[in-house]
Write a structure and sequence with these properties.
With 442 residues, the protein is an alpha/beta fold. It is built from 17 helices and 17 strands. The chain folds into 2 domains: 198 residues, Rossmann fold; 203 residues, Nucleotidyltransferase, domain 5. Strands 5-6-7-4-8-9-3-10 form an 8-stranded mixed β-sheet, with helices on both faces. Strands 13-12-11-14-15 form a 5-stranded mixed β-sheet, sandwiched between helices. It has a two-stranded antiparallel ribbon with strand order 1-2. A hairpin with a 4-residue loop joins strand 5 and strand 6. Helix 13 crosses helix 16 and helix 14 packs across helix 16. The protein is elongated. The N terminus and C terminus are likely disordered.
């Protein structure tokens, strides 16, 4: 039950009981001007959006406030939102319903319209305090740039772009731009992605049945919010990663497995430094840092080596030279790894990075157990591959990934480092002593 105070100076209630995931979405929508919401089917995004419009309209103290819900087609807008809007507004006093123009007039004189993007010119020349653009993947981008954006100027209005992925189209491009904008202007921009395996809306048993009944690409797109579902060049599909997140091994199953740490120091100001832990088939939750200098990272790494007592530590030498030197100065044996160096199997892989990622991808698909972290899932599924003129597998450059997705796959790179070389445990040595001896890297 949402309660709002309107200009009538009385408590106004909307008979809406949001799910926990919808409450999280409302909190973001109410605190940011530009929001991009990517959701799985049946999450309830339209109900969420309609009630956000109602709440915003009821709280607005400006005269003649105007709000719009826009779907790709007018018929679609009426089917998706009009009944919801009337239902949730019906308990409010003195609400006027205009069926012919699909609009409501609220007690404080605010108006809400339900519109279709198939006739965008009908919106020209007016203003808006807030706009919801639903199923944005099916709306022409110039509808926003040429019509909606100018409507927001005079009232400093807000906009919510929302939908379910439909390949790497205009909605995907917006999603990528919004991620970059959210880094630069976090007070203005918010990006939320809600997969069915994380939201808790669809019961797990039902989701498993859906996965069995639905073609793989459609399931990944519609329920796992995978923009790359229709792409054949993604090294690790999201469904493989989700399956790995559901696996778990008991301590007894991991007892004889080697312990490995991968460390990926940050390359740029907004990149992340990551310390990843793996014991055999089980990857543990990593430590992630931002704006951490190399000396501080080295000190934290030394602490984690003493705590985890690994059989090997692999560090990216690209930006980790200072971390490597400091750890060796402290007496720790660490192995530096150059992502651009030649692969051990140089006839199969273009460089060491491609080899490590391929080893990791095979591990994820076959036996790997991953921590259930949205950021890790996104990183693992962000990398594309192709083949060079010699037929060797190569990965998309990190700079291109960052340009395309708005961030570097730092968490996945740190996990990939744990596959830099085969490692076996030195069970005959005390692990505390071994932390400062030469690791047995096969």
């Amino acid at each position: 039950m949402l309660k709002h105070s309107s200009q009538l100076d009385v408590a106004v209630s909307i008979a809406y009981h949001p799910r926990p995931v919808q409450r999280k979405i409302h909190q973001a929508l109410e605190t940011h001007r530009f929001c991009v919401l990517v959701t799985h089917r049946q999450l309830g995004k339209t109900v969420c959006a309609v009630n956000h419009l109602l709440k915003s309209a009821l709280k607005n103290t400006r005269p003649h406030a105007r709000y719009f819900y826009v779907a790709p087609l007018l018929k679609q807008a009426k089917l998706l939102a009009w009944d919801y809007l009337k239902r949730y507004a019906s308990p409010l006093p003195n609400v006027r319903v205009y069926e012919g123009e699909l609009s409501l007039k609220l007690p404080n004189d605010s108006r809400i319209w339900v519109c279709g993007a198939d006739n965008p010119d009908a919106l020209r020349g007016t203003y808006a305090d807030g706009v919801v653009l639903d199923e944005y993947a099916q709306i022409k981008p110039d509808v926003f740039s040429e019509i909606i954006r100018p409507m927001l100027l005079s009232r400093d209005g807000w906009v919510v772009f929302m939908g379910t992925p439909k390949g790497q189209n205009a909605f995907f491009d917006l999603f990528i731009r919004a991620q970059k904008n959210a880094i630069r202007e976090p007070h203005l921009w918010w990006v939320g992605i809600f997969r069915a395996d994380e939201s808790g809306v669809i019961p797990r048993a039902e989701l498993a049945r859906l996965q069995q009944e639905t073609p793989e690409a459609i399931f990944r797109q519609e329920y796992l919010c995978d923009f790359s579902a229709s792409s054949a060049d993604i090294l690790l599909p999201i469904d493989e990663v989700v399956r790995a997140c559901a696996r778990h091994y008991s301590p007894s199953e991991l007892k004889e497995a080697p312990k490995i740490i991968g460390i990926d120091p940050a390359r740029f100001g907004d990149d992340r430094s990551v310390i990843f832990f793996r014991q055999g088939c089980q990857a543990l939750e990593p430590l992630v840092f931002t704006h951490l200098d190399n000396m501080t990272l080295a000190a934290r790494a030394a602490h984690e080596i003493d705590r985890f007592r690994p059989d090997a530590v692999f560090i990216d030498s690209g930006c980790g030279g200072g971390v490597i030197d400091r750890l060796r100065q402290l007496g720790y044996a660490v192995t530096e790894v150059a992502f651009g160096a030649a692969a051990s199997r140089s006839t199969q892989y273009a460089n060491k990075r491609a080899e490590m990622w391929s080893e990791m991808a095979q591990w994820v698909k076959e036996v790997g157990a991953l921590p259930d972290m949205p950021a890790l899932k996104a990183d693992l599924c962000s990398v594309c591959y192709d083949y060079d003129v010699s037929g060797r597998l190569r990965l998309e450059p990190k700079e291109k990934i960052k340009e395309r997705t708005g961030k570097s796959p730092d968490l996945a790179d740190a996990l990939a480092l744990t596959f830099a070389a085969p490692v076996r445990p030195r069970l005959h040595l005390n692990r505390t002593e071994f932390a400062r001896s030469e690791y047995e890297v096969l």
